[in-house]
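Researcher: We're teaching a course module on how sequence relates to structure. For the next exercise, students receive a sequence and then see the predicted structure as tokens, so they can try to spot secondary structure elements on their own. Here is the exercise chain.
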Amino acid sequence: MNQPLIISCPIVGAELTRETYPNLPLTPEELAIEAEASVKAGASIIHLHVRDEEGKPSQRVDLFEKTSRLIHERVDCILQYSTGGAVGTPLSERLAPLKLKPEMGTLSMGTLNFGSDVFENTEEIIRGISAGLQEYGCMAELEIFDAGMMDTLHRYAKKGWLPKHFHVDFVLGVPGGLAGDLENLLFLIHKLPPGQSWSVAGVGRFQLPLAIHAIALGGHVRVGLEDNVYYRKGELATGNAQLVSRIANISRACDREVATVKQAREILKIGV
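Model: And here is the predicted structure for the students to work with:
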């Protein structure tokens, strides 16, 4: 509780459409505006997916470059590129944007039944993305969707297949992965290496309760439209900033400071 709370915001994701959420930001310009509002509300990390001209998920380098530039013209923040892409994206495309050298990039630690789809992360894919993150000097965020992925983390770390310095994000509530129960979160926390930084991303109805638990337990939080489009049951959020602002206010009410971008870099030892 003494450490400032890092809030990460996934502003668009790869699965949402405007049929589900009419105000979904899609263009580089819209994503930049959304990122600025989220940072001003309390986020220090922007978890970034991009969309092409038709609004479909893309790993095109030019779109990541333009969106990143527009975001940094508006606000200072830690950009964390998704290497997951959309379900079925080949490894070469998942890796491509890392050549832009973002401060952070994701690394999913296993294959998962993702709703009715399969999110594939074989040993080859995990090692390939890990090598790419290290080549371009990006801090890795290891994404854990299920219990067995923690065992994979420890096994791969022992073999030297992971970056030595990383952050862990528990993504709970995906159909096919661990549910967003407090018991599951506590189980995963107890599996962490000593002193390891961690955050939790609750999907759907799990977003708010898991964020509150993370605040109390000294972890960090991911909150935004990629994971949940509702502010409360039956009421769509007005945008990412509304979801971020609520968590920032709750944290401050618990006497836990919300991290600035500078503090987030220091806590995560980015650039060290």
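Model: If you want an answer key for the exercise: The mean pLDDT is 96. The chain has one domain: 7-268.
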